[in-house]
Amino acid sequence: MDNSGKLLSDNQLGEIAIKGHSLMSGYVGKNPEYTFTKDGWYLTGDLGWKINGQLYIAGRKSDVIIRSGVNYYAHDIENELNDLEGLRQGGIVCFGVTDDEIGTERIIIWVEIHLSRKAGKYELENEINNRVFKRFGFKPDRIEIFHKRVIPKTSSGKIRRFHCKDIYLKNQRT
């Protein structure tokens, strides 16, 4: 479904919406106006497309970072950095922060490193900048490196990207 609520054709990226008799009526404490369309479609918050009746999921709508009019998926940027030496397993998070002054999102990367990592902070920042630039054509606006576990995760181990962004914004204001 596109942003106006129109159903899309095959090979078009849009928000995944579902409809059915056994569908829930909403989440407790969440206004159904924001999760259901006027036609009764439930908006999942996931992005995807169809090809010949098969659904392909691209990721969460909230994980898309829009930089200078181009959409980037946070997990694509994270995956580009996964094999850097000395990083903790699951210790990379990328998120966008809206900057009204420049009219686009700034890209922030947090990484958790092992204390045994041989290369220093400067070398790691250079590696991250070079990898991201080579693959995506830009350098992150900010890289923060941590020697301890700071990236919040769910009980099942998924990174809580929105919570990271919230922590970052609160720290920027203080």
UniProtKB/TrEMBL annotation:
Keywords: Ligase. SUPFAM superfamilies: Acetyl-CoA synthetase-like. GO terms for molecular function: adenylyltransferase activity; ligase activity. It comes from the Bacteria. Coiled coil: none annotated. The keyword tRNA processing does not apply. GO terms for cellular component: plasma membrane. GO terms for biological process: fatty acid biosynthetic process. Belongs to the ATP-dependent AMP-binding enzyme family. PANTHER family: DISCO-INTERACTING PROTEIN 2, DISCO-INTERACTING PROTEIN 2 DIP2 -RELATED. This is Acyl-CoA synthetases (AMP-forming)/AMP-acid ligases II.
